[in-house]
Amino acid sequence: LAPPGNGPAGPLSDDQAPGIAGLFIEPLKISLASPQPVNLTAHLIDDQAIWAAEAAFSGPGGQSITALFLSQNRSSGTSRDGFYAAQVLLPVNTSGQWRLQNMTLVDRDGNRRILSGTEIESLGLPTAITVS
Predict the structure, then answer these.
(1) What is the model's pTM?
(2) Measured between alpha carbons, how far is 62 from 91 in angstroms, rounded to an integer?
(3) Do 106 and 112 contact (CB within 8 A), yes or no?
(4) 14, 16, 23, 56: least CB-packed within 10 angstroms?
């Protein structure tokens, strides 16, 4: 993830990476009998402006899937403190847990922060989707 056209650094340039204030996963459990999309909402904050974020999940059989939270998918708030929506459809016939491996947060100036699933879980945020 890299925003287009990073400008030159100036005396007031943004050098702080974004942060996460919340993560919502709905539903946390889905049935193999009736697969459905999983809705993700990330509450992202930055001192200037969020550009995008990516959540990478790994499945029980080693599969991977990513969810992109793009600036144009902000559902509420501002570019400095907003809620961003994404959706994933997990592969069918795969039961078990899909675990969040990491989240990459990027602001418009290209500052990035990569948070592990363990770091996100330590914030009290959900990091697993169960398929049964």
Answers:
(1) 0.87
(2) 12
(3) yes
(4) 16
Give φ, ψ of 78 to 5 degrees: -120, 175
8 pLDDT exceeds 70?
A: no
Integer Cα distance of 24 and 89 in angstroms: 16
If phi > 0 it is left, if psi is from -120 to 50 it is alpha, else beta; for residue 34 that is beta
pLDDT at 6 over 80: no
What value does the mean pLDDT of the chain take?
91
* pLDDT of 11 above 60: no
Handedness of CA 25, 29, 32, 36 (dihedral sign): negative
Report how far residue 77's alpha carbon sits from residue 42's, in angstroms, rounded to the nearest whole number: 12
Two tokens, residue 6: 């990073």
Residue at token pair 């959706």 = 87
Among 96, 103, 98, 97, CA closest to 122: 103
For the chain, state the CA radius of gyration: 16
| Inter-residue contact 51 to 108 (CB < 8 Å) | yes
